[in-house]
Amino acid sequence: MSDARGDTAILPDVVQAIALDGCHIKRYLDNAVEVVHATPADRSFPDRVNESLGVCLKTGPAHDVRADGRTLRYPEDAICVRTPGTVWSTRATGQAGFLSIDIEPTLLPPGGLIGAMRFVERPALRGLSRCIRVLRSDASTLNKQVVVTELIDALLGAGLVTAPFLDAGLDARAADRARELLTSRIADPPTLQELADAVGSNRFVLLREFRRRVGVPPPCVRPPAARRTRAGVALARRRHLMDVARARLRRPEPPEPCLQARGWSVARRLPAGHARLRPSVNLVQDLTRPAA
User: Fold this and answer.
1) What mean pLDDT comes out for the span 56-66?
2) According to the model, what pLDDT value does residue 77 have?
3) Residue 169: pLDDT above 80?
4) Are the C-beta atoms of 198 and 178 separated by less than 8 Å?
C-alpha cells in the first residue's frame, strides 16, 4: 500500500517497541545502578540474561513472561523481581509503562543473590519508589548507598531473594564505632562501604545493626552539639520546657527528602497532661549545658 505521494508505505498506527526503545535511562553510583522510565507502550523483550538485580514496577495489564523455561503471568500493576542469571523474554506487554532499577553485583551482598523471578503487589515494596526518588535527587552518596542497600534488605526480608553467604553476626560495638566515624566526618561523610570496611563488616549487616542501636540510618547522624544548640534556641525564645526537651532528646531531623518521607523525624505533640509537669533544676541545667 502507498500513500498519495507515491511509494512510501503506510505504517500501522501502533508499532510494537523492542526492549528499551524510547525509554529514559539514567545511571548512578558510578554506573552501578541503572534507573529506567518507560511511558506506556506495547513492548517485546527478546531472550535475555539478567546480569544484575532487577526490580520493575509496572503500570499496565497482565501479560505472560517466559522465565527460566517456565511461562509466568506478570499481574496487572505489580512489581517483578529478577535475580542475576535469570533468563527471560516477553512477546508482548500490552500498553504498559514501567519504572525499574537494576543493581550491579558490586552492590549486592557478598556471594550474590539467588531466587526465581517473583511478582508482588506494589504495597509490598514501598521502598522502591522512595529509592528511585533519592537516586534522582541531589542527596549525598552515603544516602544513595543507604536507600539502595535498604531496598535489597527489604527484598531479603520479604523472602523474594536469598543471600546464601550473608553473615548475620556483628560485634555489638561496630555500630558505635561507625557512629563515631560519622560524627568525626560530618563535613565529609564517608560512604557506606567505607563505614563497613572501617568496622570490619558488610553494608547490609552494618546497616541493620546501626538502625537497631542508634535508631536512625547513618545519614541522619548529627553531633550532640547540634541537639544542644536547638535546645538553647528554644529556651531563648521562652518556649515551654517540654518543647526544649524534645529539641534536645529527639532524633536528628533527616537531611534528605527521602528520609523525611520515611517519618524519621519523631517529634510529636505530647498529651495535655504532660505539659503540667514541672522539671527539676538539674534537668534544666543538663538541657542547656554547653557542648563538651
Assistant:
1) 96
2) 95
3) no
4) yes
Please enumerate in sequence order all residues whose Cβ is within 8 A of that of 213, keeping only pairs 6 or more positions apart, or say none: 172, 175, 176
SS3 assignment for the chain: CCCCCCCCCCCCCCCCEECCCCCEEEEECCCCEEEEEEEEEEEEEEEEECCCEEEEEEECCCEEEEECCEEEEECCCEEEEECCCCEEEECCCCEEEEEEEEECHHHCCCCCCECCCEEEEHHHHCHHHHHHHHHHCCCCHHHHHHHHHHHHHHHHHCCCCECCCCCCCCCCCHHHHHHHHHHHCCCCCCCHHHHHHHHCCCHHHHHHHHHHHHCCCHHHCCCHHHHHHHHHHHHHCCCCHHHHHHHHHCCCCCCCHHHHHCCCCCCCCCCHHHHHCCCCHHHHHHHHCCCC
Contact 117, 64 (CB under 8 A): no
More confident residue, 69 or 274: 69
Instruction: Give phi and psi for 210, each to the nearest 5.
Output: -65, -45
Q: Using CA of residue 30, residue 32, residue 35, residue 36, what is the dihedral sign? A: positive
pTM beyond 0.70: the answer is no
b/e sequence 227-260, b meaning 16+ C-beta within 10 Å: bbbbbbebbeeeeebebbbbbbeebbebebebbe
- pLDDT tier, 85 (very low <50, low <70, confident <90, very high otherwise): very high
How do residues 222-232 score in pLDDT, each as one tens digit?
766 544 555 55
Q: Note the pLDDT of residue 167.
A: 63
Mean pLDDT for all residues in the chain: 77
87 vs 80: CA distance, rounded Å: 14
C-alpha cell belonging to residue 195: 563505614
